[in-house]
Amino acid sequence: MIYQSKLQKLYKEKIVPILIKKFEYRSVMEVPRLEKIVIHQGVGSSVFDKKIIDHSMNEITSITGQKAIFCYSKHDESGFKLRKGMPIGVKVTLRRIKMYEFLERLIVVSLPRVRDFNGMKKSSFDNYGNYNMGIIEQVIYPEINIDKIKKNMGMNITFVTSTKKNEEAKSLLSLFGIPFKKNKNG
């Protein structure tokens, strides 16, 4: 028997029929799906302190359960004292089971820990069916030990879907359980 996470089962058993009925797809292959989740943390101050980027890499690795990789600068920028090839960020791309497990932990555990949380912005969709959300502090994740934090750093999380329409992607993500704001201007 192949292991499936709860959200993966939910997608196959309940979300697919709901989306087929709502958008009148003719085939199951037309139904939008979540392809990958990319977590990126830019560490601009790593130019001055090399330990910050190593600490950031350890944090992202512990949050996602997958080894993070460095993002390097592509060209020199004298105004920021940046040279080509210097590490300036950390990223992880999650797919398949790890993606669904991370999404479940984000919805069930991490988002409720955000202070003054009233939903995700509906305007953060690009016009290609992808959703971007920013997190201000990494302390919302239970994997992070608050006593060992050297600097509060945010991160960007991108949900990449197989559809090119924002309405279909929003329906997919809201059926997974991502809470969007209720008002119209959010």
Automatic annotation (TrEMBL):
Residue ranges annotated for the Large ribosomal subunit protein uL5 N-terminal domain, each copy included: 27-83
Known partners and oligomeric status: Part of the 50S ribosomal subunit; part of the 5S rRNA/L5/L18/L25 subcomplex. Contacts the 5S rRNA and the P site tRNA. Forms a bridge to the 30S subunit in the 70S ribosome.
Swiss-Prot/TrEMBL GO biological process terms: translation
Protein's UniProt name: Large ribosomal subunit protein uL5
InterPro entries: Ribosomal_uL5 (IPR002132), Ribosomal_uL5_bac-type (IPR020930), Ribosomal_uL5_C (IPR031309), Ribosomal_uL5_dom_sf (IPR022803), Ribosomal_uL5_N (IPR031310)
Function noted in UniProt: This is 1 of the proteins that bind and probably mediate the attachment of the 5S RNA into the large ribosomal subunit, where it forms part of the central protuberance. In the 70S ribosome it contacts protein S13 of the 30S subunit (bridge B1b), connecting the 2 subunits; this bridge is implicated in subunit movement. Contacts the P site tRNA; the 5S rRNA and some of its associated proteins might help stabilize positioning of ribosome-bound tRNAs.
Key words of the record: Ribonucleoprotein, Ribosomal protein, RNA-binding, rRNA-binding, tRNA-binding
One GO MF term attached to the UniProt entry: structural constituent of ribosome
Domain of life: Bacteria
Large ribosomal subunit protein uL5 C-terminal domain span: 87-180
Family: Belongs to the universal ribosomal protein uL5 family.
Species for this entry: Blattabacterium cuenoti BPAA
Gene3D superfamilies, sorted: 3.30.1440.10
Any one annotated GO CC term: ribonucleoprotein complex
